[in-house]
Every structure is written in structure tokens, then in C-alpha cells.
Amino acid sequence: MFSLFLVTPLKLMLLGLIAILGFTVVRYSWVAFAGDTERGRFIRALLLTISAVVLVIISNHLLLFWAAWVSVSLSLHRLILFYPERPRAQLAAHKKFLLARLSELLLAGAFLALYREFHTSDIHALLVQVAQSDASINLSIAAVLLALVALIKCAQLPMHGWLIQVVEAPTPVSALLHAGIVNLGGILLLFFAPVLALSQVASWLLIVTAGISTVIAGLVSTTRISIKVKLAWSTSSQMGLMLVEIALGLYEMALLHLFAHSFYKSFSFLNSGNTVNHYLAAKLAGEVKPQLRNWSLALGLSIGLIALAQWQYAVMTSMAAAVLIWFALAALIVPSVSRWDIASLPRIALSLGVACALLTLYSFSKHHLAPLIGQDTPLNLYADTLVALLFFSLFALSVALQYWPHVRWVKSLFIWLNAGAYVDEWATRLTLKLWPSSSLLALQSEQIHLNAEAKL
């Protein structure tokens, strides 16, 4: 039976996530804007944005889905420009506005191709037909366009600048954006996974673009001092990682990643005011920087845990996923093996226990979350190998930046990364050409001066 709305177990999980994040952000905003005469306007715009996201999730009609998608962007635009006199907020809002209109045109094109192929606007019925179909020109066009929409929505390089500059907006806006709205690109691909699975071109487009974006954005984040800017670059990197997981067919890993990233980023932004205090407390407590031998020990322990999990449960079916989990567990374990004192053994035991719990969680999600997507895509070994190599390069370059900063090529790499890899200038110039203003032109002159100094 045709219905405008549909709630599946996957959508129910996402609605629960939206409810938790939405309540947290609204509650924080209510307290943060206490006494502000504009609190009512801000809360209304916030609730409108959250409502539009909910409508995207439950929509079961192509036109309704597209209209809700547009509504999210337009309501978010009001939040980004809550302080319209700030030049960087204007620049972020203008970039986001132009990119959003492009993504909406691409999404409309994808939906039109799907409608022409199956002659139905019911999303559930359409996806059922896709699962029983072979690749066609319309399906390939739709898959590529959906991939492009996801890349834009998830702020992948070189379309990431607005996400970095949006930190000029109030903190709750950053929390809502980074923890929720930026995830819509991944959610779109999870909803239309059967379409993406039929196009190797779309999958490779995601793997190459999002994979490179993951590495560059992850490395740039290590050069940033500002807490919010560091978190923004990290979001671009994490979104790229999620898109790569979806392109590889690791849907359960992408869904788990989506939830973990949402909770982490909402907490990080809403708690960013206390980060400096935590940093100072760690310094006063005598925080020890891990040495290379500590990393070697942590990598050895983590690979031992992965081998044990693989022996017992055979959870690792992807080399890229295994490498990613290996490095993640090593990063979790390394602080406990960096200092040797009377409390070392309890610390190591605790970190190993948490690592085992995370492996158990991954094993659970692999067997119970994957059916929610309803799609089983064969793993592309070439793509899997390429992604694994990208993860190795990210880890190796991070180590080089941390431990060998005086080596000539590392210095050059740091300067390049510190300038944001010089990939946002084109977007700034294009935005100023299409949407000029005196304050933004002054900001462009300032950026040109800063980039010239960085090159020197």
C-alpha cells in the first residue's frame, strides 16, 4: 500500500539518535541563551531544522524526501547566519548555500533517473525493484549522482571550506551540524544502498575522493590549535571514512561509526569550553608523550586481540576494516603503556578490557546491524587493498609529523597541511564572485595575506 511515510527498524534507530541529540542540543541552547533576547528565534530555527531532518528520515516518497532535504539546508542557513555581522559566518553560509543548491539539483537528477527506470515514486517499492534488477544506464546515473550528493553533504575535499568556517556560528549549531546534519550524506547512501551497489563507477568515486579526503583532513586536523577548528577538520575526515565504509559494503561498520561519531562530536562541541581546562590538568598531572617503542607495544597487543577475535568469531572479512580497527585499538592502548609505575598493570588491564569490549561491540554490530540495511554487497578486493594502504599512509604520516618534525620533507608537509592544503581558495574565490560583499572581500584579502606568510 502506498504511503508518504515509512518507519523501518533502521529508521527507528536513527530517529532515536535524532531524539537524543535534539533534546541535548535544545536543552543546552535554552541554558546558553538564558537572558538573550534572541533566544526564542534561535530555538525556533533549531526545532525547525530538527523537524526537517526527521521528515527526511521517515519520507517514503521521492518528492517529499527531496523537499525535506531542501528544508534542512534552508533552516540550517538561518542558524549559521544567526550572527550575520560576522564575515566568516557569512562566508560559510554563502559557500554552504551555493553547494546545497548544487547538491539538491544532483539529488533531483538522481530521483528523476530512478523514476524513469521504475515509474514509481514510492521509495520502498522502488528499492524492492532495484534489488531484483541488473545495472542500467539510469541506475548508473542515479548512483553517481547520489555519490556526488553524499560527497557534498559530508563536506569532502575540496568542498569542505564551509564546514571549517561554520564554527563562527553559536556552539549548539556546530554540535547539531557535526553530530547530525553532516551525517545525512551517509544516511542517504545507506537508504539507497541497493542503487549504489549496482555501480562500480559510483563506488570507486566514493572510495578515491572520500579516501583522499580522509587522509588529508585527518592530517590537517593534527596541525590545528583551535579546538573547534580541529574538531571541524576531524569531522570532514570521519565523514570521508564513513563514506568509504559504505562504498566497500561495510554497512554495519558505517552505521556503528555514524552513531559513535554523532555522540562524540555533540559532546566535544558542547563541552569545548572545558577542553582547555582538561588540557592544563593533563599537563599538571605529568602527561607522558608516547615513544615509538610504546606504539610498537600497543600495536602488538592490539593485533593480538584482533587475531584472537578472528580465531573465535571470524569477524574480519575486510583488510581495510581490520587495519582501521588495529590502529584504533592501538591508539586506545598506547596511553596505558607510555608510563611505567605502580599503577601500570591496572591501567593496561583496563585498556585491554575496553579494547575487548569494543571488539565485542563490533562483532555484535556485524551480525545484528547488517540485516537492517538489507543489502549484502560483495567485497571488491582491489578497493579494499587501496583503502587499507590509505589507512597505513595516514598512520605513517601522522607518526612522522609527531616524531620527526625537523626532517625537511616533514617540514614541507606541515606547512602544506597548516595552510589547509590550499584546496579551499577556489571555493572562496567562486563564492565571492557569485555572491560578493564588502566584508567578505576584506576577509579574502586577509586570507591571501595569511597564505602568503604560510608559503614563506
From TrEMBL:
The keyword Amino-acid biosynthesis does not apply. Residues 59-276 form the NADH:quinone oxidoreductase/Mrp antiporter transmembrane domain. InterPro entries: ND/Mrp_TM (IPR001750), NU5C-like (IPR003945), Transporter_DabB (IPR046396). The keyword Membrane applies. It is found in: Cell membrane; Endomembrane system; Membrane. The chain crosses the membrane at residues 12-30, 42-58, 96-115, 135-154, 175-195, 201-220, 241-264, 311-333, 345-365, 385-404. Keywords: Cell membrane, Membrane, Transmembrane, Transmembrane helix, Transport. It comes from the Bacteria. It is a multi-pass membrane protein. Forms a complex with DabA. Belongs to the inorganic carbon transporter (TC 9.A.2) DabB family. Part of an energy-coupled inorganic carbon pump. NCBIfam families: PRK08168.1 (NF006029). This is Probable inorganic carbon transporter subunit DabB. The lineage of its organism: Bacteria, Pseudomonadati, Pseudomonadota, Gammaproteobacteria, Alteromonadales. The gene is dabB.
